[in-house]
């Protein structure tokens, strides 16, 4: 079968939507850090939709990879002229495949070097720099939100005369060059799952700039916009089965297609300093205040993902759809959402959070998406403090009970012991793996897991939390996940 490239596009199977627009002459307006699955299922799709309408020709995308492993994506996209297949999976088994043409290519530090990246970022036509570098990518203290200025790669970037290697170093150096050349700065648009993602990006970049050059930092603070956004589309990691599906559906071989659900949402703060694509013509909701949308999504959808993944794993499920179809797990999610998460939300006109929560549960149940419990269990120490613990702190401040949230934290602690209920090892994937697993290991201190103030603040000192947490942890250790879920359901 031919490989997907610009030259083979016309050989795609009939019914596959290929770019109907002329890709020659498209201009990179967006430089994107973190060219993973999600960006290609979400933001790149919106630009593709605009291009199909004859819009946004100056807003094509070039990716940037700062990690050595990003060379693989660069090669896959490079060999395909930036083209790739996006497969949207309906719950009834129907699949829509389309070829996306909005990405022009990708630069990596490993292959192209920092100077090439800086040139892209400094070119006047690059007007937005967007980010999906994961929750951990912002290099902040989980509990205080402070930028970790002593992180080794940051220290290296701050050294006199160093060529930048981090997202912060590259962005700040490019902004310095733009300022020196009298070029309008770009907007920095975070699309990561973080509360106040724009403010977090602002804070991290400013902290780096202050350490490098306080005058430049003041200019960035005054001149650069960092819009907040709420982004939503479940996009699992690509598998070989997805590669085979792409080939079957399109008739063209794709080294790195993307598979996702049909649901799509992007709520974006309309705050840009150097223009923006006409997103309102695509499916983007432009608003002044994204915060209530972000809170609803992170506290209902993302925290529920954590609510199902450890219990799901312990019960032997490996797919999100199977775990969520267990009534004990969906029951836990409904109790967490209805009794604990929703009472902490700010109202959004025209949006019923209970209905939103039910939609999340039915999305998790889509068996076609193939999302894995392992994907959701990974990097928990970046996720739980940003998604679930804000719910806990808000509930405690109101004197409300936290039984279900505490049980979810306990399920993480039980999972992080690294042994399942059958005694089989669990592969814990976390950038704080050693620390988290050591804290989870059986010891004389039942609260050891939650004693790290960077992750948990003062929760270990708060009986309103420790009492339900210890109840859940003891139940998990002594009676198992199914027994605890049954007890929680009976007590509700
Ligand atoms: N996958 C989803 O369902 C989904 C949905 C909504 C939002 N998101 C957001 O997108 C992020 C990425 O998800 P994905 O599915 O594309 O993951 P992915 O693993 O496919 O891609 C992650 C990308 O980020 C880069 N990266 C990771 N850490 C980095 C760092 N410290 N500095 C710079 N680059 C770094 C990687 O090199 C890679 O290009 C998530 O963490 C989340 O914040 C994902
Ligand atoms: O990719 P992460 O790190 O934000 O977290 C894993 C999932 O919970 C998340 O990716 C969801 O699938 C996503 O937020 C849905 O929009």
From TrEMBL:
UniProt keyword list: NAD, Oxidoreductase
Signal peptide (from-to): none
Assigned EC number: 1.1.1.17
A GO term, aspect molecular function: mannitol-1-phosphate 5-dehydrogenase activity
Ranges where the Mannitol dehydrogenase C-terminal domain occurs: 289-475
Substrates-to-products reaction catalysed: D-mannitol 1-phosphate + NAD(+) = beta-D-fructose 6-phosphate + NADH + H(+)
Statement: the UniProt record of this protein carries the keyword NAD: yes
Pfam families registered for this protein in UniProt: Mannitol_dh, Mannitol_dh_C
GO biological process: mannitol metabolic process
InterPro entries: 6-PGluconate_DH-like_C_sf, 6PGD_dom2, Mannitol_DH, Mannitol_DH/Oxidoreductase, Mannitol_DH_C, Mannitol_DH_CS, Mannitol_DH_N, NAD(P)-bd_dom_sf
Start and end residues of each Mannitol dehydrogenase N-terminal domain: 29-279
Family per record: Belongs to the mannitol dehydrogenase family.
Protein's recorded name: Mannitol-1-phosphate 5-dehydrogenase
């Amino acid at each position: 079968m031919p490989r997907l490239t610009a030259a083979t596009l016309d050989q795609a199977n009939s019914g596959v939507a290929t770019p109907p627009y002329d890709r020659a002459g498209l201009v990179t307006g967006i430089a994107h850090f973190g060219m993973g699955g999600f960006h290609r299922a979400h933001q790149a799709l919106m630009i593709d939709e605009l291009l199909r309408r004859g819009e946004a020709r100056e807003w094509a995308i070039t990716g940037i990879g700062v990690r050595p492993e990003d060379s693989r994506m660069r090669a896959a996209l490079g060999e395909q002229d930036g083209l790739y297949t996006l497969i949207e999976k309906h719950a009834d088994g129907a699949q829509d495949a389309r070829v996306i043409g909005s990405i022009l290519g990708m630069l990596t530090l490993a292959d192209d070097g920092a100077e090439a990246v800086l040139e892209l970022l400094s070119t006047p036509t690059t007007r937005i720099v967007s980010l999906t570098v994961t929750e951990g990518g912002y290099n902040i203290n989980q509990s205080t939100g402070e930028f970790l200025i002593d992180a080794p790669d940051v220290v290296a970037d701050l050294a006199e005369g160093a060529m930048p290697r981090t997202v912060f170093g590259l962005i700040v150096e490019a902004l310095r060059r733009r300022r020196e050349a009298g070029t309008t700065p770009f907007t920095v648009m975070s699309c990561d799952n973080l509360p106040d993602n724009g403010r977090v990006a602002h804070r991290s970049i400013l902290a780096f700039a202050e350490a490098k050059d306080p005058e430049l930092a003041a200019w960035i603070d005054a001149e650069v916009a960092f819009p907040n956004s709420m982004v939503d589309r479940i996009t699992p990691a690509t598998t070989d089965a997805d590669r085979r599906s792409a080939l079957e559906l399109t008739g063209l071989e794709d080294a790195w297609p993307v598979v996702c659900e049909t649901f799509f949402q992007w709520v974006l703060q309309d705050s840009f300093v150097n223009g923006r694509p006409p997103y309102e013509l695509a499916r983007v909701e432009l608003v002044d205040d994204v915060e209530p949308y972000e809170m609803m999504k992170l506290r209902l959808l993302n925290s529920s993902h954590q609510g199902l993944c450890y219990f799901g794993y312990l019960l032997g499920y490996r797919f999100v759809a199977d775990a969520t179809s267990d009534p004990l797990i969906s029951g836990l999610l409904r109790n967490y959402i209805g009794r604990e998460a929703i009472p902490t939300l700010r109202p959004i006109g025209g949006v019923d959070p209970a209905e939103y929560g039910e939609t999340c549960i039915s999305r998790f149940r889509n068996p076609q998406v193939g999302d894995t419990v392992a994907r959701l269990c990974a990097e928990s120490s970046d996720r739980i403090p940003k998604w679930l613990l804000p719910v806990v702190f808000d509930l405690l401040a109101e004197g409300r009970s936290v039984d279900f949230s505490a049980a979810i934290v306990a399920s993480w602690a039980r999972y992080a012991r690294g042994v399942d209920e059958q005694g089989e090892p669990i592969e814990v994937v976390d950038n704080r793996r050693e620390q988290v697993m050591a804290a989870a290991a059986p010891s004389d201190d039942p609260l050891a897991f939650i004693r790290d103030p960077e992750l948990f603040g003062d929760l270990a000192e708060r009986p309103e939390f420790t009492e339900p947490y210890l109840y859940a942890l003891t139940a998990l250790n002594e009676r198992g996940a199914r027994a605890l879920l049954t007890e929680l359901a009976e007590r509700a």
